[in-house]
Amino acid sequence: MTSVYEQLLVREHLAKATPAGTLSEADETRFKERVKELLDEQNAVIVAHYYTSPVIQALAEETGGFVGDSLEMARFGARHPAKTLVVAGVRFMGETAKILSPEKRVLMPTLEATCSLDLGCLADEFGAFCDQHPEHTVVVYANTSAAVKARADWVVTSSIALKVVQHLHDQGQKILWAPDKHLGDYINRSTGADMVLWDGACIVHEEFKAKGILDLQKIHPTAAVLVHPESPASVVEVADVVGSTSQLLKAAGELPNETFIVATDRGIFYKMQQENPDKRFLEAPTAGDGATCRSCAHCPWMAMNSLERMIASLETGSDEIQVPPELIKKALVPLTRMLEFPKD
Ligand code: SF4
């Protein structure tokens, strides 16, 4: 089977993924002040994902914005009164914000920031897959384009996916799941639901290696292992806790362990360390036997979010998310189902 790296579209976009450079302290301070001025002038607020850099996350917090997972970001953006949302994350998050708040202007530091799951699930091919399974309820992960969401019955994030599929399975429904095959497989094994899976993967989570984690645990025998379910089944098997970013964050606070091995994007360490200053967080290894490190536990597209790009977007209005009104109307239906699904 072709690995997600070998897919032409993913390689093309990865080649454009220029990470933000390191700034001097003076430049960082100057750029942050400029962003603050622009946010005030334009009645704008930053909505940032946990995987963006600590600088962006801290700035979102300092300016009354928000840091969270994609579900929490969507909820915050929809209820905040600001006229402009500056979504620091990847493109599907900006599109989700626009679908939920079409009257607001949604800017991103760069529209080039995308996601291998979104790239690997093109609307036409996905539509044909749905046509082959007309008796299935279509559940798509939030990491998809507006056009793919428009074809779905449900949109879910990793924090709610298991509950929604369990709910549909309890009603006797068959599920068509896309695009992350590892998350789909995890949900399938957990719920026993009748599911067909799209063959997509996250280039960051697919790189974690069970052997590397077990070797690291020999050095830190009291460490708890936290794993995001976009990781392969072999990695999920060695986890003490499997969950979305916000669920892993919660586990880091609640478990009595002092050390944690964390198999998700290392951007999460900013919040984990902030909330648990006395605990220690270690990156799960990504290079195991026969593998080379491609993402090194950090999403190359999330790394494109920088202060300079945020300033350029706010100053010029570039990198604004546009979603056609007919897609907004269709995609809003499965997104609203997710937002109205009981959290607990
Ligand atoms: S970490 Fe993976 S799922 Fe998240 S945006 Fe990056 S490629 Fe997509």
TrEMBL record:
InterPro entries: NadA, NadA_sf. GO terms for biological process: 'de novo' NAD+ biosynthetic process from L-aspartate. Pathway: Cofactor biosynthesis; NAD(+) biosynthesis; quinolinate from iminoaspartate: step 1/1. One of its GO terms (molecular function) is 4 iron, 4 sulfur cluster binding. The keyword Protein biosynthesis does not apply. Its EC number is 2.5.1.72. GO terms for cellular component: cytosol. Keywords: 4Fe-4S, Cytoplasm, Iron, Iron-sulfur, Metal-binding, Pyridine nucleotide biosynthesis, Transferase. Its cofactor is [4Fe-4S] cluster. The keyword rRNA-binding does not apply. It comes from the Bacteria. This is Quinolinate synthase.
